[in-house]
## 1
Amino acid sequence: MTLTPLDRAKCAAACRAADFVEGGMKVGLGTGSTAAFLIRRLGERWREEGLRFRGVPTSTRTADLAREEGIEVISLEEARWLDLTIDGADEVDGSLNLIKGGGGALLQEKIVATASDRMVVIADAGKRVETLGAFPLPVEVVPFGWTATRALIEEVLVGMDVLGRTTSLRMNGDMPFVTDEGHYIIDLHLNRIGNARQLSLVLNQIPGVVENGLFLDICDTLVMGHGDGRVEVHDLASGGTEETRVDLAEGDNVFTDIAD
Ligand SMILES: O=C(CO)[C@H](O)[C@H](O)COP(=O)(O)O
């Protein structure tokens, strides 16, 4: 099976980040295709190295995959606090601020990441941007009165430093997409977000808005993969960047399982 350079980049980042998990840790497990590579790799380490840790999933999809891999799954209520969360992202800027929620799991992802000593983001190099906003910003809303909530969101966007102002209700076929918590998602097509902090605060003040996909000052480390197996690890605290290469042969099973 031929794997795309994009899959290789995601897998390289995920395999490198899997090394951050140590025995006895409580680990937040992200959602999405990059996070799926991570969970496969952690499953390998569980079986082959006897690595034992407890995973807190950020979605039912991730919980199912982690259990399939034989990883011990606990809830955030049981864990209370986590050593580490590893998750994907839709966009990452130079300060490691993020847009997340492309997979619709932003609420659990934000709660889990915020309840962690360290958040590590795994991403292919295409996710790196100068300024956030080309990827539509997901906003999770309560279904009750969602059209009124959407109108209020569109109203506040008028005063914001953004380029685009259209919004769309995320769909799943003919029906609205429903999150694990039973909410809807409104995607904001902003193109460029000039002041992410202000936008995040204003959005979360609108009644009916549960949370938005801006993750500001939450990510500590970015592990960015390239299609040739190169991986850059950017650490915010030290300001340092380390470059390594992941032996992709090592991740072959991980690749195949996901690609299938
Ligand atoms: O935020 C997310 C899910 O809500 C994902 O982490 C984000 O969408 C990236 O996904 P992928 O790794 O598939 O590109």
## 2
Amino acid sequence: QAGPTDAQIMNDEASPGDVLTYGMGHRGQRFSALDKINAGNVKGLVPAFAASLGGEKQRGQESQPIVYDGVIYVTGSYSRLFAFDARTGAELWQYDARLPDGIMPCCDVVNRGAAIHGDKIIFGTLDAHLVALNRKTGKVIWNKTLADYAAGYSFTAAPMIVNGKVIYGNSGGEFGIVGKVEARDVETGELLWSRPTIEGHMGSLKGADNGVTGKTNASWQGDQWKNGGGATWLGGTYDPDTNLIFMGTGNPSPWNSHLRPGDNLYTSSTLAIDPDTGVIKWHYQTTPHDGWDFDGVNEFISFDASIGGKPMKLGAKADRNGFFFVLDRTNGKFVSATPFVSKVTWATGYDKKGRPIYVPENRPGAPNTDGSKGTSVFAAPSFLGGKNWMPMSYSQQTQMFYVPSNEWGMDIWNEPIAYKKGAAYLGAGFTIKPLYPDHIGVLRAIDPTTGKIAWEYKNKAPLWGGVLSTGGNLVFTGTPEGFLKAFDAKTGAELWKFNTGSGVVGTPVTWEQDGEQYVAVMSGWGGAVPLWGGEVAKSVQNINQGGALWVFKLPK
Ligand SMILES: O=C(O)c1cc(C(=O)O)c2c(n1)C(=O)C(=O)c1cc(C(=O)O)[nH]c1-2
Ligand SMILES: [Ca+2]
């Protein structure tokens, strides 16, 4: 087969026989209309096969599978890519990136998925390369260096393909890198445009004007912007209605906000970008002058709904800072912000213009002039967020968002720090603490037109996997305890679970093959929680590692 073509990729949301994009459609809704597996029969779901990623490289498996022409493609920890036969689970080929010793991913050696186009399957590596492989053989077609890994740049997200361009972001916000969004020709890997996310860098844009204020450095002082962070480490979504790419940007660097007065644009924001030129069409900053690592990369998902009787083109984002945002996606105008976790201490809400109403005493204090640490505060959510990278889902059937969230806070304080290439650039110390004795994770069904929570499911360990919803009135997600679970989308009743043998921090997908509906998810515990989780890390230290693709269907 010569595909998938640009048109097929654009139609992924409506084609149940394959999974061609990270997001199950460029809008990122992660909804499939398939209903052969449904709330009535899901209790009969059984494994079709499991396929091991093997070896000693069993760390966090955050990948979302791609399914095309009878093959399942999954990325694995340590920048690996596997092709498995979608009917038997037999391995067709495996590609292992040869990583240098000096790579510096902040939060485990993860990768979230690949992009497919024509004869190619494309993914990013922890040493900041983008690699296009022949999807039939696994042989390298092109391999491009994106940035200097020794300065802290890495790559963990799934790239996306929009009309022949592969579009992607970067990682490294904990090392004082500068966030970027870039586009390359999918056939050759040649750079088409490069869009920095930090204001003072706008002059260096290749091939397009900056399209924003025309001012540089307006929201930064001095040279702080030069190592200002704003990594685009989760990649983006794309909306065909507006022809816009939506990219979230991460935390400003360093975390110590007293070292960088100002809003620090465009950190902790959502950017709407023209895919042809890289021009920023609008931006909305969820946490101006972020002082808590509320890194706002979270996915922005397009959907249509009526607000106050008026039909609108909207987008929603469950931000790490604990608020669920709805914006007009045509212009970035603020519609609403509602807390989606039980405790938010840093702001009481948002004003009509969409600026946070801060609680100043809950910002960690400046370090003292003698170099000792500043006043420590208790803040919620913790820096790992009301929600972290794990993608939510929007059901076209129930018109609700299903948000994997976590209930935790942190003690956080600031320390002096100076930028040094290749070293952590935080200027802060912290300890994460659970808020409740019996649970941290909460899967919530949210009505985006009101912000009201329709139901919630509580999980002992933090939820760290993506969500899928289907036309069978189902919602699927995984748990660190090892389960893939299915819930009734309307009521939240738990209908089915299966233990995969290691924590599930991957994102489930579904497709139809030979007249049957399949569900697949990666199993393999890891990600940021065991590394950064403070007291919470201790509570999950006995979870076994793994690395396997699990595929399920109903018995014939
Ligand atoms: O600022 C950044 O560049 C950056 C990158 C990443 C990443 O690439 O995985 C994470 C974070 N920040 C981060 O703050 C974070 O909490 C986080 C969790 C995870 C994970 O995969 O579990 N990655 C990242
Ligand atoms: Ca970060």
